[in-house]
Design a protein that fits this description.
TIM Barrel, 8-stranded parallel sheet
């Protein structure tokens, strides 16, 4: 399938900034709800890969309190095969347009410029790039479409990666300093392609080219990113394998407690966005902690 004809240009950064400011004023952080329209994502693959199920998932996320809806049509789990632009658009375009039509702030999770351009053009406000700008055209698309740009740290592609525990400890010196340096280099390339600095969001990429220990270190010290980088920080720990190291028998959908603990820690450390599967439970935990005098 070719990219649909787009009639309007999104001015998504303005929408995103407004949503982020209101969410942070209300509970200190914006909650990004995950809508994977894939057959093979690590936690919910196949659950929302029909148009009816995907629209229902969007409705559910909004009802539970999501501030941003993140739509992904290509799995980024270790070992996942790449998905063509036409197939990503077949899976994602309808649900992105639907979410926009009901007033949602929408993020398109893709590393393909054609997919990004089509979805931003129909009204998505955010491009969520999980490739660390492997294709510079992504930054140009975001700049042209005036969207926010989530730049996530990683190395290589999902196809290259093994599972957790297989990324060598020796590949990083100080994982926080190394991730920050590599992210800054990619951010410089994004700005050189025309992207405004205030459009950038930083995601340290828990689980992407990191083993469990490295992901825990990044999460435990996420306050360094919040303090050192002059951009919003996003943390996506929800249901990931490193959270199960204290409970090895827990599958992805049995990691709710650890996922909430990770989100609360991230909020205390000053992150701006938490990306989660379980929106209602996360929102309840954050709101409860704030009501008791927490962060």
């Amino acid at each position: 399938m070719e990219a649909p004809e787009i009639e309007s240009v999104s001015q998504g950064l303005e929408v995103f900034d407004d949503v982020l400011a209101r969410a942070r004023g209300r509970r200190g952080v914006a909650i990004m709800g995950i809508c994977n329209v894939t057959p093979d994502s690590f936690s919910d693959g196949g659950c929302f890969d029909s148009p009816v199920a995907a629209r229902a998932r969007v409705d559910e996320l909004i009802a539970e309190g999501a501030d941003i809806i993140d739509v992904g049509a290509e799995s980024t789990r270790p070992g996942a095969a790449s998905v063509s632009a036409s197939e990503q658009l077949r899976r994602a375009f309808d649900v992105v347009c639907y979410a926009v039509s009901i007033g949602a702030c929408v993020s398109i999770d893709t590393s393909n410029p054609q997919v990004a351009d089509a979805c931003l053009g129909c009204g998505a406000s955010v491009l969520n790039d999980t490739s660390l700008l492997a294709d510079g055209a992504l930054a140009r698309v975001a700049a042209d479409r005036q969207s926010a740009f989530i730049l996530m740290h990683t190395r290589g592609t999902p196809t290259d990666k093994g599972g957790f525990g297989e990324y060598p400890d020796s590949e990083y010196g100080d994982v926080v300093e190394d991730v920050m340096a590599e992210w800054r280099a990619a951010a410089t390339r994004a700005r050189s392609a025309g992207l405004r600095n205030d459009a950038l969001v930083m995601d340290p990429g828990l689980g992407f080219a990191k083993n469990g220990r490295q992901s825990r270190d990044l999460l435990s010290r996420v306050d360094v990113f919040a303090r050192e980088l002059d951009v919003p920080i996003l943390i996506g720990a929800s249901r990931k394998s490193f959270l199960a190291e204290l409970d090895p028998e827990a599958g992805p959908q049995e990691r709710l407690g650890a996922s909430i603990a990770a989100a609360l820690h991230a909020v205390r450390c000053g992150v701006s966005i938490v990306r989660v599967h379980d929106v209602r439970a996360t929102r309840q935990a954050i709101d409860c902690e704030r009501s008791l005098g927490g962060s």
